[in-house]
Amino acid sequence: MDKRKSDILEAVVEEFINFGEPISSSTLYEYYDFGIKPAMIRFELESLSEDGFLEQPHISSGRVPTDLGYEFFASRILEREKKNNLKDARIKNLFLKQEWNNFVYEFSSKLNILSILADFDNEKVYKIGLENLIENLDWNDKKELNQVIRDFEEIDNELFLKKGKTENTPSVFVGDKSPVTKSKNISVICGRYNVNGSDVEVFCIGPKRMDYRKVIKTLKGLEN
Description:
By secondary structure, the protein is an alpha+beta fold. The protein has 2 domains: about 5-65, Arc Repressor Mutant, subunit A, CATH 1.10.10.10; about 90-220, 2-Layer Sandwich (Beta-Lactamase). About 50% of the residues lie in helices and about 15% in strands. The chain has a 5-stranded antiparallel β-sheet, with helices on both faces. A hairpin with an 8-residue loop joins strand 1 (about 55) and strand 2. The longest helix has 20 residues, at about 140-160. About 35% of the residues are buried.
């Protein structure tokens, strides 16, 4: 994918995450400078839709990202993010001191997501923030909501079954590609760390419209 098209795709995903409304070519033309007219932006949006990165909910509406579009967006962030110094010293200190209960609480509060830490050496799972996840979901499907709750209840076993399969660098899973959840309407971002000899994994679970940039930066900031 050429740079202009990838920049347009990134802009669509960023705007949709921020505002939750389909993004039109006129909106992109007004707020971004891609060096082309609205008609050419519209052509690029159609091309991105044909390639599976975007979709159009209604004929007269703008575009929204597909799972593939979210994955592309997250991959661009991962490519740019090097080791990041975590500005929130309290979270980093709790992490390094292995105060896991306090860590997941602060982590979940900072990112407004469901936060989970798996301490494999001691066979313990710490999790908090289910209400954050539910409050930020974009849909009101009772069946899917029940699936999210089941995922939360069963995730301890799933984590130990998938132990060690997470990359050291943050990994992003959108929809049904998640290794630890079954709901097709959420995303999981996770990272594996060695903290003073202890093997732990941190999982951030949120809606597809979660703030990928902020979550990835925070996870990178936990690296020693």
